[in-house]
Design goal:
The complex is a heterodimer of chains A (337) and B (285). With 337 residues, chain A is mainly α. Chain A has helices spanning 2-33, 39-49, 56-70, 76-88, 103-138, 143-155, 160-173, 194-230, 234-241, 246-283, 289-298, 302-330, 332-335. Chain B is mostly helical and 285 residues long. In chain B, 75% of the residues lie in helices and 0% in strands. Chain B contains 13 helices and no strands. The longest helix of chain B is centred in the N-terminal third of the chain and has 37 residues, at 66-102. Chain B is elongated. The chains are: A mainly alpha (337), B mainly alpha (285). Chains A and B meet through helix 1, helix 2, helix 7, helix 10 and helix 11 of A and helix 4, helix 5, helix 9 and helix 12 of B.
Chain lengths: 337, 285
């Protein structure tokens, strides 16, 4: 019986994940079909207009791939069926801007950068925001807690782009300590050497700082209000009267309860944080999916844009599935039902 | 309504700040109706002038007075945010009320779809959409597609409100008096849901205006209409920071930050106001 519930929970989460992927990809299928003109032809026209020299052979090849993927031949269901067939074969055709490299290769090359930047920043922001938010909620009468609260209130609504831009401007003009663009210094290659690791961290610092500040502020505010609600509950009052130390009350009773909605929150917010990471990468020319997106838009690479959209959806859905499946580790009610 | 505002204004510092900022920004944006320059024309004034008495926010490299340009930009951004929020409210009220009141299998299906829309990363989809439409893109079209993608979070809030309303005495009285489910939802539940709809509308405006900035800096909004995002886009196109024309980019960033903070504080303050727990506290219960 115990295992039955847990199993059902997992099955349900996997189902939800598949539904997210299904709906997301269906939207990417529908959007090009809303266009007033044939998207394939207008994409090729834009790319030509951007003044790149392309082989006629390349154009023919790309037209075939694009028409197969997003073409308007045959009935709508037939198109939809072909779209999925191509996706399941993980074949998105060649990229237009860097022919004949397949779109999949370009995405595969940028994906580790985005995953690395996004996951570390999201996790650091979540941990710091919740820890400080919890402390500030518990000691809500202290001066520092109020000051931090005001600060986060101002940070929370700032769009990711503006935060990234302000940090870039600050460090480009006032304190030029950190590199402003790229993922690694020129001439540094992937290896487990000190030089590689410092270069990697130095380049990732500013982009992740801007991500951590914005999303950390949001976690702070969420945790702050959760904890200040829990503090007035009976069991906390009894623990205080019973002489349990502040530290034990906060970390063993209050925070543990308040963390549950924040874990769910992380799963729900991940898509939003992903949007932020894309835009931050563009600002700092960080070589991940965001920068690839910018290049794709700039050079009119239609297939690449669709590929990025699809992979973003799949990636975020899978990351959320992992958080969901880890949830029972935090919540004993699901584990021991 | 007015007494609520007065009450909040007197007792909540956040609301007072937000109220003053937003009224100020609304006045600022309505100055656009008195602008001496056409928003589309350029080279009306000498270019690259730093802020002074004559040009409050300086002038751009395209010879536009940034002060007047910003009045248009803020007006368009606000209208864009409001129209996206209103359009998405229609979907979220519809889904939230139906799912909450019907319950059962219909609710489960609707909420699965709803949860999918919450977590799907929307920016890549919007980039694709803008890329497909290109020159035919307009702010209204953008707000329409964003409304179609951004209703889910609020639908869930509305649903949870309806779920709790359903268990109240008056719903049962209405059911036993023979009221049909549609009139119950519209006449009995909707009024209680309205405060949440209003609060989430502000949050949705923040979301859509922030995304518009992201899209515009990539050159993927209606770049010929002045908005907060497109002003930054054009400044970037002319390398304003490198050229030392920092005021071109400082003006939209400063005003929009003020606007975003104002809207967020308004949202936070209203949210606390409509939360039944704090309402009890205020009444001394």
């Amino acid at each position: 019986m115990k295992h039955g519930f847990f199993f059902r929970y997992c099955l349900q989460r996997v189902g939800q994940c598949l539904l997210v992927i299904f709906i997301g990809i269906t939207i990417t299928f529908i959007i090009p079909r809303l266009a007033p003109t044939d998207p394939v032809e207008s994409a090729i026209a834009t790319a030509n207009m951007s003044g790149q020299y392309t082989h006629p052979e390349a154009v023919a090849e790309i037209r075939r791939a694009l028409t197969e993927l997003y073409g308007l031949e045959g009935g709508i269901f037939e198109q939809y069926f072909n779209f999925w067939k191509r996706l399941l074969k993980a074949d998105l055709g060649p990229s237009y801007s860097s022919f004949p490299t397949p779109v999949m290769d370009l995405i595969r090359r940028s994906l580790p950068w985005t995953v690395g930047l996004l996951l570390t920043s999201a996790f650091i922001a979540w941990a710091i925001g919740n820890l400080i938010g919890g402390l500030a909620g518990y000691f809500s009468q202290r001066g520092w807690a109020r000051t931090l609260g005001v600060f986060c209130m101002a940070i929370r609504p700032t769009p990711y782009y503006i935060m990234a831009f302000v940090i870039l401007a600050l460090f480009a003009y006032i304190l030029p300590i950190f590199p402003l663009s790229g993922g690694l210094a020129i001439g540094v290659h992937f290896s487990f050497t000190w030089r590689f690791i410092t270069s990697l961290l130095k380049h990732a610092f500013l982009p992740s700082l801007s991500l951590v500040i914005v999303s950390g502020g949001a976690w702070f505010l969420g945790m702050n209000s959760l904890v200040s609600n829990i503090v007035s509950e009976d069991y906390v009052v009894y623990a205080e009267m019973g002489g349990v130390s502040n530290r034990n009350i906060l970390f063993r009773y209050v925070m543990r309860n308040a963390l549950l909605p924040q874990v769910t929150g992380l799963a729900l917010q991940l898509g939003m944080i992903f949007n932020g990471a894309l835009i931050t990468e563009y600002v700092f020319s960080y070589p991940g999916l965001g920068y690839l997106t910018y290049n794709a838009v700039f050079s009119g690479d239609y297939g690449l844009i669709i590929g990025i959209a699809i992979f973003s959806i799949i990636g975020v859905a899978l990351a959320i599935l992992i958080i969901d499946l880890a949830y029972p580790l935090f919540d004993p009610r699901i584990r021991h039902r | 309504m007015i007494s609520t505002i007065k009450n909040l204004y007197e007792h909540d510092r956040r609301f007072r700040f937000a109220f003053i900022v937003i009224i100020g920004i609304i006045i600022f944006s309505s100055l656009s109706f008195f602008s001496p320059y056409d928003p589309d024309s350029s080279y009306d004034v000498p270019s690259d002038q730093s802020p002074s008495i004559k040009y409050f926010f300086g002038t751009s490299s395209r010879g536009q007075d940034i002060f007047w340009k910003m009045t248009f930009a803020i007006r368009n951004s606000l209208l864009f945010g409001i129209s996206t929020a209103l359009l998405s409210r229609i979907i979220s009220i519809l889904v939230g009320l139906t799912a909450g009141y019907k319950g059962g299998i219909g609710d489960r299906i609707l909420m699965s779809i709803n949860d999918s829309f919450i977590v799907i990363p929307i920016l890549p989809l919007l980039i694709l959409f803008n890329f497909i439409f290109q020159e035919k893109m307009s702010l209204f079209l953008l707000s329409l597609i964003m409304a179609c993608l951004g209703w889910a979070w609020d639908a869930r809030l509305i649903r949870s409100q309806v779920l709790s309303l359903k268990e109240r005495e008056f719903t049962r009285t209405a059911v036993y008096s023979g009221m049909k489910s549609l009139p119950i939802t519209l006449k009995e539940h909707l009024p209680f849901v309205m405060p949440i709809v209003f609060a989430t509308m502000i949050n949705n405006m923040l979301w859509s205006m922030g995304l518009e900035v992201s899209l515009a800096v990539l050159g993927l909004s209606d770049i010929n209409t002045p908005t907060i995002g497109t002003t930054i886009y054009w400044a970037n196109q002319h390398q304003a920071l490198v050229a030392g024309v920092w005021w071109w980019i400082a003006a939209p960033i400063a005003i929009s930050t003020l606007l975003f903070i104002g809207l967020y504080l308004l949202f936070a303050s209203l949210n606390q106001y409509i939360d039944p727990r704090t309402r009890l506290l205020r009444m001394g219960g």
